[in-house]
């Protein structure tokens, strides 16, 4: 596995996108509802609004581990005792691939995810 994406939660999406694009100088790859995606040296940085129910609460940083076979990787992690909050599922259909994810947490409760770009 490699790191495919890191997600940061922001309170104001337009301000967050402007900061990372115009101040930090990261190339904006694309925008989606509630998020902007940047190229950070080959690792994607997602800047997004909090998930429902998290508004005004704790802001999570999520590390997304990229894998070629999300089902097989999830199965191995389950064998090692990982309990997934969501099993592998389709998140978005892009022009040239489908984006699949599965979410879990480390022993300290930090959110982590598997991601797979199925072509």
**Tell me about the biggest sheet?**
8 strands, mixed
* Count of helix runs: 2
Q: What's the β-strand tally?
A: 8
What percent strand?
Answer: over 45%
Give me the side-by-side strand order of the main sheet: 2-3-4-1-5-8-7-6
- Structural domains: how many: 1
Mean pLDDT: 90
3D structure, described in words:
- The structure is a single chain.
- With 119 residues, the protein is an alpha+beta fold.
- Helix content is 18%, strand content 45%.
- The protein has two helices and eight strands; from the N terminus they run E-H-E-E-E-E-H-E-E-E.
- Strand 3 (35-40) and strand 4 (43-48) form a beta hairpin.
- The chain is globular, with a radius of gyration of 15 Å.
- The model has no long low-confidence stretch (mean pLDDT 90).
Overview in brief:
The chain is of the alpha+beta class and 119 residues long. The chain has helices at residues 13-23, 70-79, and strands at residues 2-9, 28-32, 35-40, 43-48, 62-66, 86-93, 98-105, 111-118.
Write the layout of secondary structure elements.
Layout: E1 2-9, H1 13-23, E2 28-32, E3 35-40, E4 43-48, E5 62-66, H2 70-79, E6 86-93, E7 98-105, E8 111-118
Parallel strand pairs: 1-4, 5-8
Antiparallel strand pairs: 1-5, 2-3, 3-4, 6-7, 7-8
List keywords for this structure.
single chain, 119 residues, alpha+beta, eight-stranded mixed sheet, 8 strands, 18% helix
